[in-house]
Write a structure and sequence with these properties.
mainly alpha; Growth Hormone, Chain: A
């Protein structure tokens, strides 16, 4: 039997390569200058990729149920790497950029993202929060490596050729790591002692996908993920140019910000997921939403780059925390057996948020000439969102155990 920690390491490597998509904002200014495209037009490529990601993750979860994680991972690396590579052939044609980077690479992203998440939650039933945090921390940190590398390459060979170089690397990294992905044996148990004391959905309470989506709790979790993602992905899509306009940063500082918030994104995925094992998944979201509301309302008035960076990091800590916590949240409520399809479908919230967040901030920036109105609107949305996790209690279908107090309900 393979060592589960080796599979975890491979999962993190795979997610780092996939998470490079979060460095998209470093391409925004070079592409607008090179081809004369508007801010919303360039941002739409990233928006399409994230939207497609959400639905491809669901397809990947279903495929994994039939074929296992490895074939899905191989397909993910091929589509993602090829899609980014083909973006180098855009030659001023927006439709080609949308088709290659948006649709093809986005499909690879979705197929690949669900593989480590759904696989590792089965290998680590005793540490769900921690391992899902580790599994997706790499995705959040992917831009840390890619942003400075892409910025350097763009300066030397231009944006199109940078896509070719990065696409080749992504293909090699994802397919190589994906080869290690496999499910544990059906009777696998890491430790009877740890399982005995852990708070988990009993084995006879495993929900299938149809059973899960018949419960209102599935839609409640979808809404929580959608709202939390909308906030953070709006910042990710415009981080570099926003730092230049609001905080007076130069291009190098803007690229550095992308890398710094990538650290926050990755750290938040682990920190909040780890914390959720102790205080409960719902309590984590009850903390993150109001924190983000305050920060978004403050951002337009912050003109010091250091302070601006710190506040963006707070938002990305919470953004990453949503992805780190939600897989365990879904497994707690619906069981781990079908989490690939159940959480995979839930990731359509990511796709929808990838449309709303970047589009909202790009359109308002284009029409108002600044980011103030968009940031204030998102801040208000976060404040209203706080009520939702307070209402999402465990499902009672199939005689799931009684609802625990708020702090330990999950």
């Amino acid at each position: 039997m393979p060592n589960r920690w080796n599979i975890a390491i491979a999962g993190v490597v795979m997610q780092i390569a996939l998470g490079a998509v979060y460095a998209w904002s470093v391409f925004r200014i070079p592409l607008t200058k090179l081809f004369g495209w508007s801010i919303p037009q360039v941002t739409l490529a990233f928006t399409i990729a994230i939207f497609v990601l959400g639905f491809a993750a669901f397809a990947g979860g279903l495929w994994m149920r039939r074929a296992g994680p490895r074939p899905v991972a191989m397909a993910a690396g091929t589509l993602y790497g090829l899609g980014v590579f083909l973006a180098s052939q855009t030659n001023g044609h927006l439709w080609w950029l949308y088709l290659s980077y948006g649709v093809m690479a986005g499909t690879g992203l979705g197929l690949g993202y669900i593989v480590p998440v759904a696989t590792l939650v089965k290998w680590f039933p005793d540490r769900r929060g921690m391992i899902t945090g580790i599994a997706v921390a790499g995705f959040g940190a992917g831009a840390l490596i890619t942003a400075p590398v892409a910025t350097t390459l763009i300066g030397r060979v231009g944006a199109p050729q940078t896509f070719a170089v990065l696409g080749t690397f992504y293909f090699i990294a994802v397919t190589s790591a994906g080869w290690f992905m496999q499910d544990p044996p059906r009777d696998y148990r890491p430790s009877k002692v740890t399982l005995a004391v852990s708070r988990r959905t009993p084995a006879d309470q495993e929900f299938t996908l149809p059973e899960a989506i018949r419960s209102w709790q599935w839609y409640g979790l979808w809404a929580v993920l959608f709202l939390n993602t909308t906030a953070g992905i709006a910042i990710i899509s415009q981080a570099a140019p926003m730092a230049q306009e609001i905080a007076g940063a130069d291009a190098a500082q803007g690229a550095a910000l992308v890398g710094i918030i990538a650290i926050a994104n990755g750290s938040g995925r682990f920190f909040w997921a780890w914390l959720s094992d102790a205080i409960g998944r719902r309590t984590v979201f009850l903390l993150m939403f109001p924190i983000q509301a305050v920060v978004f309302l403050l951002l337009p008035s912050i003109h010091a780059f250091g302070t601006f960076t710190m506040l963006c990091c707070v938002i990305l800590l919470c953004y990453g925390g949503g992805f780190g916590t939600m897989p365990a949240f879904a497994a707690d409520y619906f069981g781990a057996e079908h989490v690939g399809s159940i959480y995979g479908l839930m990731l359509t919230a990511w796709g929808c948020a990838g449309v709303l967040g970047p589009t909202l901030i790009a359109v308002l920036r284009q029409t108002t000439g600044g980011y103030g109105q968009a940031l204030s609107a998102i801040g208000g949305l976060m404040l209203v969102s706080t009520v939702i996790p307070a209402l999402v209690t465990p499902p009672s279908t199939k005689a799931v155990s009684a609802v625990a107090p708020l702090g330990v309900s999950s």
